[in-house]
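Memo to structure team: turn this sequence into structure tokens by end of day. - J.P.
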Amino acid sequence: MASTSSGQANDVKFEDIAEGDTVTTPTASMLQSILNISVHGDDVFSEDTTTNNLESFIVSLTGKPAACFVMSGTMGNQVSIRSHLTQPPHSIVMDSRCHIFNYEASGAAVLSQAQMITVKPANDKYLTLEEIKASIVDSDDIHYAPTRLICLENTINGVIIPKEEIKRISEFAKEKDIKLHLDGARLWNVVAAGGGDLKEIVSYFDSVSLCFSKGLGAPMGSIVVGEKDFIRRVRHFRKMVGGATRQIGIATAPARTAVEEVFLGGKLARTHELAKRLESSWIDLGGTLKFPCHTNMVWLDLESVGINEGDIPIEAKKAGLKWDYERIVVHHQICDDAIKKLEGVLERLVENARSRGGVQSFDVPKMARYSRRVDQDLA
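Reply from structure team:
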């Protein structure tokens, strides 16, 4: 299945419709940017021109004073946490479903000796200020680890945290002298969906990690932005965990191209449109969603139509697609043909469920599209 012409990538044929936007591959222009590098410097000593230019470029986009390229989003989050937390005992408040807690090998506990206080949002979408206030340790009681850091993730499960809520949390954190970090791996999607201006959103945080791979399609890498003193500490801890590299322009050149081509080039908006199309198709079949579809993710409530999750990969394979579970993630290299095939898979899954007596044929009102979240830890 050919990729869309707007995201050509070495003539790769995309069958992976829904596993995630991490399956994106470098476009021809990203690969060409590597060949265009004329000077290869040593980034351990901040002497690589390509990398320095990328960091300056991201500084201009985000409005933060300094930036540091890191090898991955996990590294970006972990060196940021370690740079904020100077002396244990200390605790971090975060969403119970977030990547930092669930999918970073317990890095905050191991590298930063931090207790992680996790909170499940009552609205099943995002944390609120009231929930954070109720969860922090704001006491001199020696039985507890005082909260020194709050971590948010935006988007989380494809859901945008309202800018107004972020501002409230930021003001509270400053009042309590608690640092605020954002796992902004998909913050590009927030901006593309109209969830706020990049500089304004970033301004509410002490540090932000942004991903170049995932939906943007660069070969690798993320970047951390923050104050100059903070970024100096980030560079120190990046070195400590083995993330300082020499001629890393081969990664930072395509990273910049990815931002220019996919984010600034407006290609993320198409992924959101396709996700909304799949949302509508699912609702028309009588299904509901576990989360609202704000960006490029569609979370299907399989129980609402009686589908067994184990049937998904079987039907998807028949259509030449790879799709294993309830989450659908659309990326900029997905072609329209793949979306059509996926819609056909959805129809067959529902038809099969009905033939087994798993669900009655009925119409679901548009206002009933969102079902309550029971328990989901995937970010």
